[in-house]
Amino acid sequence: MKLNLLVPNLFWPDILQTEIYNDLSATSLEVLLSKGTAMTTPPQEMEAWLCKEFNVAKQKNDWPIAPLMLITDAPALAKTSKDFWMRADPVHLRIEQNHIMLADSQAFQISIEEAEQIVRDLNLILGNHDFSFLPLCPDRWYIRTSKAPEIFTHILSHVTCKNINNFLPSGSESIAWHRIFNEIQMLLYEHPVNQARESRGELTINSVWFWGGGNMPQSTQSPYTYVWSDNDLPRALALASDTGHSELPADAQEWLQTQISGNHLVVLDALQGKAKYRNAYDWRETLVSMEKNWFLPVYKALKNGKINQLTITALNETSSQRFEITRSDLWKFWRITKPLPVHIETH
After folding, report:
1. Of 45, 88, 172, 317, which is the most buried if we count CB atoms within 10 A?
2. What is d(CA 239, CA 57) in angstroms, rounded to the nearest whole number?
3. Burial level of 300, CB count in 10 A (0-12/13-18/19+)?
């Protein structure tokens, strides 16, 4: 049996802040990374990595996340729609000096009632454009249009907690989409939903982020027998490729008890939000929990032959790293165990 662990932000994003690893109990993870064969490639977001794994190509300039997510958010539309789909997710923008910083829905809660009220007004005000908004989930909004816009966008998770001035849509139609972006912000500035949110001390929904546009991919191919994840994109890709899938088990012991043979993908993305928002304490605590619940039992399973090959993919802000470990690697005494910061690579 082969196990592939996908762990976004396995390493703390600030590579100079090595003190965050002080007294961090992650012995099994350190052994696994030290004994394995490492390969480093340029940084990429989880969404892009998953698309590549499932043989989904970029369309024009973007990864087609929006049509893929229709598979879970609107299955009927996913089967019948020939339109171009793009995500238009609710976000909160905050001005800091000369920067405009973006927070995604990890930083706030939004109800379906609020989403529907905002989207209804957006469609009324922006009805002269060749698209309409659909709030298929409270924090996942979509637009559909018959023609693909000539713009290049950036994955939302890549822009989160960053200055959006560096990531606005580009391309031959970018000026028109910048204008739409501004219209939306003007509408939302004093929107009743936001006035109510502000009175409750909640972050306002003062913009949307366009990204992940495309048409439904003609086909997807999975290299995996089974996918385990609480994230909806791996689930959508599993459904698109007729791959078995389930929610993430509580720990590796529970996963091992399923006794499903083959090649498994397990997505451990609990560190991602903590790293994006620079929540150092919760990032450390989450990594300690992963050590106990996943890395230690996986190390034991590899050592005992219950797993034949382990791959750990760490997607970081400075690089993407792939560590491949076999049972025999654990006995290579000349590969000494190194502390976590030593494994951080930049590309």
Report:
1. 88
2. 17
3. middle
Whether residue 56 contacts residue 237, with contact meaning beta carbons closer than 8 Å, is answered with: yes
In this predicted structure, the answer to whether residue 127 has a pLDDT above a threshold of 90 is: no
Token pair listed for 319: 């690089």
Condensed to tens digits (0 to 9), the pLDDT of residues 182-224 reads: 999 999 999 999 999 999 999 999 999 999 999 999 889 999 9
Beta carbons within 8 Å of 123's beta carbon, 6+ residues apart: 132, 133
What would the pLDDT profile of 253-301 be if each residue is shown by its tens digit? 999 999 899 999 999 999 999 999 999 999 999 999 999 999 999 999 9
Q: Which has the closest alpha carbon to 248: 294, 292, 289, 288?
A: 294
Q: Where are the alpha helices (DSSP H) in the chain?
A: 27-35, 46-53, 65-73, 75-80, 112-125, 156-159, 174-189, 192-199, 232-240, 252-257, 270-276, 280-290, 296-303
d(Cα 151, Cα 31) in Å, to the nearest integer?
A: 45
Nearest Cα to 173, choosing from 82, 84, 49, 69? 84
Chain centroid offset of residue 169 CA: 20
Q: What are the residues whose beta carbons fall under 8 Å from the beta carbon of 3, sequence distance 6 or more?
A: 264, 266, 298, 307, 309, 310, 311
